[in-house]
Design brief:
alpha/beta; Rossmann fold; 2 domains; 4-stranded mixed sheet; 11 helices; 41% helix; Four Helix Bundle (Hemerythrin (Met), subunit A); binds 5-S-methyl-1-O-phosphono-5-thio-D-ribulose
């Protein structure tokens, strides 16, 4: 099942707010619908929102007629800025949009007609999508070598096919381990407040027939204490140049637990998630979301009216807690500042 696909001048997004109850595609014919889908998490996960935004830019540029390529380029920059303000933490969003704008720079855009530019950007969005799938397969290939046969793997949030253009990062490693013939099993943290683990990771694993056990977030410590977890693997939304990693809220807690129980803690992410401009985790912008996500579960109010809420969508895991970062260019171990710089060229 595709996370998204381009069909007849529209972007179809598998609406992740409806899963697992309903498999429904959201049809986006303009960039505002794509921006809303990113904000509302109909499409979510760092690489997936980057790819969706790239198509969103193409849609935005299809809405108007342009007399000159200068007008086209100015509008492309305006729409790109609007799209990358939709979610602040995952750097893949900015990365994909910059790649789209960069494509026009390289092509000497001023010499092309607006129609040629639009077609070029559509091809670039397709390339971003297929590059992401290929990167995830390469991550899977490197990562599965770290997974012992019979491993019991804990993951947090959803870093699967749904969070990417396909195959997944953390779940890609798990898929690759299965494809390599290993008998593995997965524990999925439910991932409050929005339940990406329960709704999406568990769903993907059930579809793939990979044994999966759902736990609530507060059960991980006990699970590890009972020696029921061999390793942890998660995705990432932004990796600072020193290896500090922002990922779904709760990841830091899982990393601390893994350290205490001497369990390897792996991050799987494409290099588009690495932001060398950010020196350390505390400089990564952390999105804060609507309080209703905490006071309600699936539309049902669970807290008293008027209660105060804190709802950061991500936290930062310090590099010291990360055993290795698995990328499509290889597995990076500490010291991360040196080794990330090397792998990023
Ligand atoms: O708020 P979300 O659902 O977009 O958060 C997603 C995550 O934190 C994922 O773990 C991360 O984006 C990596 S996805 C390959």
């Amino acid at each position: 099942m595709d996370t998204m696909r381009w069909e007849k001048d529209s972007l179809l997004l598998l609406d992740q707010t409806k899963l697992p109850q309903k498999v429904e595609y959201l049809k986006c014919k303009d960039y505002q619908t794509v921006a809303k889908a990113i904000r509302d998490l109909s499409v979510r996960g760092a690489p997936a929102i980057g790819v969706a935004a790239a198509y969103g830019l193409v849609l935005g540029l299809s809405e108007k007629q342009f007399n000159t390529s200068e007008d086209f380029i100015a509008e492309a920059k305006r729409i790109a800025r609007e799209l990358w303000l939709t979610r602040p933490t995952a750097v893949n969003l900015r990365w994909a949009l910059e790649r789209m704008l960069q494509k026009m720079n390289e092509a000497n855009a001023a010499s092309l007609t607006p129609a040629q530019l639009k077609n070029m950007l559509l091809q670039e969005a397709h390339a971003i999508l297929s590059d992401d799938v290929n990167a995830n397969k390469a991550i899977g290939n490197y990562g599965e070598k770290l997974i012992p046969d019979m491993a019991r793997i804990l993951t947090h949030c959803n870093a699967g096919a749904l969070a990417t253009a396909g195959y997944g990062t953390a779940l890609g490693v798990i898929r690759a381990a299965k494809e390599a013939g290993k008998e593995i099993s997965v524990f999925a943290d439910e991932t409050r407040p929005l339940l990406q683990g329960a709704r999406l990771t568990a769903w993907e694993m059930v579809q793939e027939k990979i044994p999966v056990t759902l736990i609530t977030d507060n059960m991980a410590a006990s699970l590890m204490a009972q020696q029921m977890v061999d390793l942890v693997i998660v995705g990432a939304d932004r990796i600072a140049s020193n290896g500090d990693t922002a990922n779904k809220i709760g990841t830091y807690g899982v990393a601390l637990l893994a350290r205490e129980h001497k369990i390897p803690f792996y991050v799987a992410a494409p290099v588009s998630t690495v932001d060398l401009k950010i020196k350390q985790g505390k400089d990564i912008p952390i999105e804060e979301r609507n309080y209703l996500e905490v006071t309600h579960i699936l539309g049902q109010m669970i807290a008293p009216e008027g209660v105060k809420v804190w709802n950061p969508a991500f936290d930062v895991t310090p590099n010291l807690l990360i055993t290795a970062i698995i990328t499509e260019r290889g597995v990076i171990t500490p010291p991360y500042d040196k080794n990330l710089a090397l792998i990023m060229g």
